[in-house]
Amino acid sequence: MKRVEVSTSLSFHGEPCWIWTGRTSGENKGNRATRGGGYPRMDLNGHTVAVHIVMYTHYFGYVPGKMTIDHECRSRLCVNPNHLSMVSHKENQRRRDGKKPHALTEYGVIIDVSDALAIRAKFKAEEIRKAA
Fold first, then answer.
1. Strands 47-50, 41-44: pairing kind
2. Which of 64, 69, 93, 132 is deepest in the core (most CB within 10 A)?
């Protein structure tokens, strides 16, 4: 598991994301940006496969052809099986279009990732001032 890093900055239901640090499907294909880019990829038995699907299958079993695996934490690089759920393609699209990426604080409050990063930067700046 050298390619997975546990990120305490992003969490879902109090559990940290497992951020994939290995190869991904890339940012775009051709000249147009795609929604399909940025997913973890690995080689398995001579085939390139999506890591989040491998993780889901390993922990929970077979994924039928009409179903997809959704990142409930909204982080494409997360491979934590407890952040993945099997849903229909239509439900996956609905979730994608209806939710912003977020982080769940230890108090159960959902905040945007940009807000979480701003809060972290503020605390870091205060720690630096106190140390000086």
1. antiparallel
2. 69
